[in-house]
Design brief:
Elements (H helix, E strand, L loop, with lengths): L9 H24 L6 H30 L10 H31 L5 E2 L3 E2 L8 H36 L11 H14 L1
Antiparallel strand pairs: 1-2
Helix pairs in contact: 1-2, 2-3, 3-4
Length: 192
């Protein structure tokens, strides 16, 4: 479960891939739901979007806590600027993963729509309803969403660069079954 200097542990992988699945699902869903006509289905879909957003925020907070308690593996080679770029992208990703749901929650508060998380708990009002804040918060939510997509693209491009061009283990050590795959490959090589 713990990270080592060479690989990510199971919990870090679970946090990473839960977040990735949520983000990959949320963007097309968000674009689709904005086209819905006002009615029960639209309110249900917005409620689901908000619930998943709060779930992403929760996972991100736990993920950051885990990262502080359990340092990540060492950076695998490359010039210093690449390490800085990697750190900048990760900081940007974490910032967006926190800011996006918080801004969404503030937007709902400003519009006087309570946020219920899967019908289990209602989030507290962080601000009083204010119609003048609705549009700026909606725009901020969209801008941070676009920033998250750009950073996600850079993150994926960096991982693919490490895998296909640098041919190092950066990508493999975050794959869910990388340890099993690496072990099976070693056993296959030993059998030859």
């Amino acid at each position: 479960m713990l990270n080592s200097s060479e690989r990510y542990g199971g919990l870090a992988k679970v946090f990473h891939w839960l977040t990735a699945l949520a983000i990959v699902g949320m963007f097309p869903f968000a674009w689709w739901m904005t086209e819905l006509k006002i009615g029960p289905q639209m309110f249900q879909m917005y409620g689901l979007h908000k619930s998943v957003g709060i779930l992403v925020l929760t996972v991100t907070v736990f993920r950051l806590g885990w990262r502080l308690l359990n340092p990540k593996p060492r950076f695998l080679g490359g010039p210093t600027w690449q390490r800085w770029a990697s750190e900048a992208v990760h900081i940007g990703l974490y910032t967006c993963l926190i800011a996006l749901p918080v801004i969404g929650l503030l937007h709902s508060n400003a519009a006087n729509f309570p946020v219920s998380v899967f019908g289990l708990v209602t989030m507290p009002q962080l601000i009083v309803p204010d119609r003048d804040l609705v549009e700026p918060l909606q725009e901020a939510h969209e801008i941070v969403g676009i920033m998250l997509l750009v950073l996600l693209g850079l993150h994926v491009a960096g991982a693919l660069k490490h895998h296909f061009f640098d041919k190092d283990a950066t990508l493999r050590r975050m794959l869910p079954f990388a340890a099993v795959t690496a072990s099976a490959a070693r056993e296959h090589d030993d059998a030859d």
